[in-house]
Amino acid sequence: MLIRRELPADESALRAIHDAAFGADQSVESRIVDDLRGAGDVIPQLSLVAELEGRPIGHVLISRAKLGDDKSLGLGPLGVLPDAQRQGVGAALMHAVLAAADAMGYPEVVLLGNPSYYSRFGFRLAGELGIEPPVVQWAPHFQVRTLAAWDDRRRGSFSYAPAFPTV
Questions:
Q1: How many DSSP H helices and E strands does the chain contain?
Q2: Which residue in 41, 91, 109, 144 is a FRET match for 119, CA 20 to 30 A apart?
Q3: Is the separation of the CB atoms in 140 and 12 below 8 Å?
Q4: pLDDT, tens digit, 9 for 90 and up, residues 112-131
């Protein structure tokens, strides 16, 4: 398996990955990817594809976000084709994208997801660090992964890129 940056030719394959992974034609996740890409909020170095034998089988995306008035990162979506799930593809994508974000000097990555899954990658509930979700009801699933540039004074309201839905 190869982990690489997204290429323009990948767009339809990535849409198909998210639709298959989330079990819907035109899934919310594939629309998020398209909307973030269209708005220019995707960070190209942080949109990674897992490829097996020349075929994209997984994708993870990080987009621009804000923590208070400071730059931050929002992770999501992460999708893997159903026939490639439970084989370490999602974990490989997570490790690669977190390492890339860290190497780029970002202080944290924030996501909305299942704490029992994402805790294995060092994510913890954002509220423990004084980071508030854009939607209060998200708090039990709103998580942050601090990186090397983290500073404990970073706290406040988190905002995804405008194209990221908050409803």
A1: 4, 9
A2: 41
A3: no
A4: 999 999 999 999 999 999 99
